[in-house]
Amino acid sequence: MRDAQTNRINPASDIEAIAVAVDRVSKTYPVPFLRVKKLLRRKFKPPVEALRDVSFSIRVGEIFGLIGPNGAGKTTLTKIIATLIQPTEGSATVNGHDTVRDDERVRRNVGLAGAEERSFYWRLTAEENLLFFARLYGLSGSDAQRRIQELFQLFEFDELARRRFAELSTGNKQRLAVARAMLANPPVLLLDEPTRSLDPIAAARMRETIQSLAQNNDQRVTIFLTSHNLAEVEELCDRVAIISKGEIRAIDSPASLRAMHTQQEDVLVEFTSLAVADAEHALRQSFSDRFFTLERRSGGLQWLLKFSREAGDETLDSVLRVLQQSGAVIRSVEIERPTLLDVLESYEKAPDTLE
Question: CATH homologous superfamily of domain 263-337?
Answer without folding.
Answer: ACT-like. Chain A, domain 2 (3.30.70.1150)
